[in-house]
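Hi F.,

I've been meaning to write this up properly since the lab meeting, where we talked about keeping a consistent format for the predictions we share between groups. The idea is simple: the sequence comes first, exactly as it goes in, then the structure tokens exactly as they come out, then a line or two of notes. No screenshots and no reformatting. I'm using this chain as the first example so we have something concrete to point to.
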Amino acid sequence: MARKTTVGVVLVLSLGILAILFLQTKEVPPTYTVREIEAFKSAARKTRLTPFINGINNEGQIIGNFAGINQIRGFFWDSKDGVRFPMEPQFPKSFFCAINDSGMVVGSATLPSGSNVAILWDERSGTQELGFDALSPYISWDINSNGEVLLGAKKGNETICGIWSAGSIIRSVTFASPLEVRAGGLTESGTVVFSIYESATGNRIYNWFPNSQPQLCLYSTGPHQSGRIPISGDHRIPLTRRLTSERDLILNRWSPTEAYVLSASGTFHEFSNSAHTHTSASDINNRNRVIGSIFSLSQTNIWALQSLEMADGLFGSDLHGKYWYDHHALQCRAVIWDETARIDLNELIDDNEVYLRTALAINDEGEIVCEGTRDRQGGYYLLQPNLKEK
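Output, unedited:
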């Protein structure tokens, strides 16, 4: 009898140890504390413009643009001073694309003459207009932690892209018509990923490594076959922190609406859709956490607002003013994906009165900026993980 009891105790203890080991190895989704960013709401009322979030750095500073009909104003937010418009009154219009962890912001600004210039702004140095040779770059797409900036300039029917660092261009490359550079991302090592459009082939992804010429990213241009992504439709790289240090990036394909992660090796992961559910990815961090939204609506109604310019009450992620859709009209839910699962962020927050419609930006600390509602009033929320990821 004693022997049976001993065996039973050992068995129970063994099962307990196995359960503990299982729980330790199984990754548990983080939970989040929700904080409404009241400054966005008050600035929106004051300016009568809608905020669009383009990035959050690891210091918790947020950049983006307040936009409306024929108006766009780049903004910088931190917890100390709230919302600021650093380009004013020098520039009547500005567009902020990206921010690094030193608080350096890049983008584009419009001179009183109407021409656009690439800009770099930070708290200490103020605003710099970036250029090279006799060209005037019209936009700075991205900036890495080394302070290197990816620029784009026009010269006739050519697009000239360069890496700016400490006052000079350290390398450049030229794309001639019919190739049109839509967007670009810059890694810490200086590798660039371009989204390049050609009318005959649609959008393609190019890698530009240091000391080499741009190379077409090796993945299929055909239909769904053998785990390959179709790019005959409309793909794009959003302009902010959507490129990891390993060159993993997110793509959104409209019609049907599908989100992908494309890895540096050319393989991709498609976020599953159902017949009535669409996915849209907004951001990816260096821990391969992808955020965005899932929503349900007929394809016809989703793009009924197609080709509208930026307008009050509309939310979207395309610089050119196309494919904007109204999250208020959609049955949106903010979500986070990892390599194994998609999780509704509404199930992970500590405030039952807040409903998160779409996740907009994420940093490497796991902080997420979302758009949502409380008591049917729209607002923007900062989600801070209760436990930091290891």
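Notes:
The radius of gyration is 23 Å.
The chain has a mean pLDDT of 75.

If this format works for you, I'll send the rest the same way.

G.
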